[in-house]
């Protein structure tokens, strides 16, 4: 991971650290590593989403463990150094700065630690389509609805989940949402 961290420019690494802190503070649902990776690649750095996601998980673990143990900035930096860390100097400086500025705000209550074992809903997009024909059937005229759910998993990684439904399936889906809305109005 340290080799991949060396590749990431300091400003992008700082943005990643800040997003992780915001996620741990429940201010944002997760870290969009795919979008950040694309911007890093556009800047000329060769890194893939999987590697960036691993780095995000490591940093998330580092910050949450530091918060759980109530580490000061100096204790965190000393721990990083004494662990035989091969982190590049710019990464340690960013971690020091971000932890010093925002680290103390991380809420590590027992409830917060036990929560978030499932993903968090971020966004939903849908579109209506019609399959006109295929190799095996000349005239389908088959309507369908494609739904894309954006969710943040417990570690904060944001992913899209897509699925298609027939019109009867979509009507059932819609009916269930209406039922949920009516129940929520009674709360």
UniProtKB/TrEMBL annotation:
Residues 120-187 form the COMM domain. One of its GO terms (molecular function) is NF-kappaB binding. Pfam families: COMM_domain. Belongs to the COMM domain-containing protein 6 family. Scaffold protein in the commander complex that is essential for endosomal recycling of transmembrane cargos; the commander complex is composed of the CCC subcomplex and the retriever subcomplex. May modulate activity of cullin-RING E3 ubiquitin ligase (CRL) complexes. Down-regulates activation of NF-kappa-B. Inhibits TNF-induced NFKB1 activation. This is COMM domain-containing protein 6. It comes from Oreocharis arfaki (tit berrypecker). The gene is Commd6.
